[in-house]
Queue: 2 jobs
Job 1
Amino acid sequence: MSDKNFPPLGFSSVAVHGGHHQDPNYAHLTPIYATSTYVFDTAEQGMRRFSGKEDGYIYSRWGNPTFTEAEEKIAALESFGIKDGNAQLQVKGILHASGMAAISTMFLSNLKAGQKILTHFSLYAGTNDLCHQILPDLGIESVIMDLRDINKAEDILKKDKSIAFLYLETPANPTLQCVDIKALTELAKKYGKKVGCDNTFATPYLQQPFKYGVDFVMHSTTKFLNGHGTAIGGILLGSDLEFMNGKATKMQRVLGGNSNPFDAFVLINGLKTLHIRMDRHCSNAMEVAKFLASHKAVAKVNYTGLDSHPDYAIAKKQMKHPGAMMSFELKEGLEGGVKLMNRLQLCLRTVSLGTSETLLCHPASMTHFSVPKEQRERYGISDGLIRMSVGIEDAADIISDLEQGLQ
């Protein structure tokens, strides 16, 4: 909004208008700025921009007007209604080519050889691979534990002084395990550790980690923020503006993890309907979860909206709604899961999540195939587990497809 006297906008209005700056040619939408570089009015202006004395675009690996709207819109949503003292919390976002690019920037700009990450089991497989297969070669190790046990988490922080970063993914992929963001962040701050949180499954519409004092939030924007499966992307957000404008920005630029103008454009347009889509995703998911939990062929449903889930109370405390993601096991195990997936007529057999369509996948052989079997099973990812991203179709049609598939 251009009028500073206009009252604060609601979440839905921020999703539509946040981050938008009037295009100099008066285009209704921020255009796709398909350019690699930007012209300077004078040689002196170029010098000022490179030195940091003047704001402005230089090269699209470093920034682009289409990126800027997406970054500012997501930052406004993640910080919506959160105060820093008497003022609105200020958050900086850096758009990336993928969620993995964003998390890489976060870890590599915060950690050095000899330091460790404290995190929990049942992480996204790409994150798990980064922690176990890539970072150790750089001298950065990960400590994995059940972070729902606050006392044990404190014991580890007391004993292992090399832990420098606490990393949370809640709800976690694909077991929907939840951890207490507030309690863990307070604990980390007590021992001088930084905290990052993957908010992909929840989105800022359902959960705002900055409210609990985390330092960083990241997303795979490919999922619910885009909402239509039209582009790959990621974002890293931080509340320490000096760090984000300095070390984090430098890391992203040097590693070359930038987004591209087309992907940023479709992300902006997806964000405008986030609140509407999430309401439908969530209401559908609750109906589907109740159906599965009552079906004779189903052995277990992992959905934090059901009081049978071990983390029901934590999710209820920190989330507006349990969300659109769930996983379940059939009594026939892997064989039953394969039969169900092959019988689907409306729902889609595919990886990823957060699109308008209902998507099912088999984590053990698909999204988490790179995780060793022993490790998977310890994390609760059995061979018979099916992950489901509930879409925005009519709930009755989703249930009808599952019902015929389970016969």
Note: DSSP finds 15 helices and 14 strands in the chain.
Job 2
Amino acid sequence: MKTYSLLLVVVLALGLSAIRVCAEGHYKSFIVSTYATQRTVQSLMDGDLDPAQSWAKLTRNLKVDKIYIEVMRNHTLVDETNLEKLIKFYQSQGVEVCGGLAFSVSEANGYQGFDYADPENRAFAKKAVALAARHFNEILLDDYFFFDRKTDDDIRAKGNRSWTQYRLDTMREVTRDLIVNTAKAVNPKCKVIIKMANWYDQYAGMGNDTEKVPLIADGMFSGTESRLWVGQEQHLQPYLSYDIMRFMDNLKPGVNQGGWVDQGGAFPIDRYSEQLLDTVFARCPEMCCFNYSGMLFTIPRMAITNRPWANEPTTLDFNELLKTIPANDNPTFADTAGYTLGQVDSVLAKVGKPVGIKTYTPYHATGDEFLHDYLGMIGLPMDIFPKFPADADMILLTEQAKSDPHIIKKIKAQLEAGKSVCVTSGFVRAMQGKGIEDICEIETTGTTIPVERFTFASGPGSPFRRRGSPGAAQPDSLTINNPLKAPRDLFIPEIKYFNILTHDAWGDVLGVSPGGTTYPILLSCDYANGKFSVLTVPNDPADLYAFPPMVLSIIRGVLGSTEPIRLDTAPAQVALFRYDNNTFIVQNYLPTAAEVTVSVAGKAAEIHDLLTGKDIQPAPPNSLGLGRFGDRFGPGSAMPPRTSFAFTVLPHSYMAFTPIHAN
């Protein structure tokens, strides 16, 4: 609408001032790099892979600003003789050339890494670092920089320490003495950047230190390869590609230099595109497309045309992409990356700094591993902090918060200040007998309960709580007589609470057992001036995706009660990314279209589509108040207004918006 065009310009201008990503290359919002492994580098120097021809094909659609030339992998160094010649070739292409190191001994032997208790491995590590520092002013360490060995040397060196503590202590020393000090002794200008793998919730066990190493190295890099999430050992969810970036960003301002995606798990091929997108949605300064040779792999036409959504104008629209390559050629991964990143670049130039529901993961904490990613996949925008975010109006605490010896005191302080705290059933289990009862008398019994049906009580977080009208009743369609159903039995831990009529705690969402007994999915209680909630996480966190849409709406409403942008109605596996200038992105990971409703705090006149330039008008008010789930106010209280907008997101696609508020 023309009436709001000037306001739109102002809103977007404010967003640009909120965050400055140092993109000085071909793209406005990030720089793009690629990484050539030791074997590829040797092939390029030997002439087995032609540098000019391969570079021309790699960059025909993907605009590369930087290349990493790896000089060691699998305990093997490149031949240094022709290294400077190769460096000069890429410099002549107008790109920055940096070094790379992979501290692997044998990838074929269970991804075997260096043993830092072995004198030979330590000496070889220093030799490799020195070689790299002679030729480059920046070195990026591949995520083989971990420590998982248990040799006789390690057993002796470990002593009485736990394996985790031994590995953390060792890798701090290795980072400082073998890597950083060695590099700077050879080349004082040399910067050392360490890429961390994608298993961020289990870093400490492999010696990956998020507390001390970011203070030693010149920067960090994030492994954003989320790949496939079904039937995989790592339990990686698509949302990890974004979540890990926020986790790393919050370790230390400016420490996270970028994200890294390879070709793994690219089935369907849209998954490759989504990993790139979720990485840059986190506003990373650099998108590394690993690896040089893999980027040249072609994608068979059958893998494109066999996708059920192949003829729809989805985010990865191969009908458009194929117009950018010769008619008789197949697209490469580089072509796919070029199309994906080129499209999203203009969108990201208009969004601000990523923000979301603040959650607390103390350094080296364990428990509820990767749960933040599963929650992101049901539409909750996560923002993980290593220090307690006392400034937040709502904090989510998973089992990992048990590592803080003062956590109960901190929860009470939040609630006494009139703020909200939501904890998981894993946190309740871990803190049982350690003070949780002083906030709410609840306990986990150790019993597993199957639930398939769901119902709602009239608790503080319920969408049907009476508001100043004693005679108000729940809609008949949502009572115990006609509960909502999941597609199968979901197994949850039993949480015991005082559920007599007076209700110390309320079961806002209840699962119903085969025998008809109800068990809490979402509990809430008052404490001092605040609201305390408990989210029951299924034994298999992927079963969150099987919760009925209305159950998900209430969970989003409670955890997102203070969020200015909220995903109100949507199936699971639809994610929300929110920014501090109130722009937002909705991404659909499903193979089918998703009907979505988003609510915006205040009275918004429309939302402006940052991809198409079109505007969407507010949706009619819902008779059941679906946009109001979780708005936590007492009887008779006036709720702050929210405006809802409904739209459809195509399969494996995203949409980006900015709200325009009426004067």
Note: The longest helix spans residues 163-186.
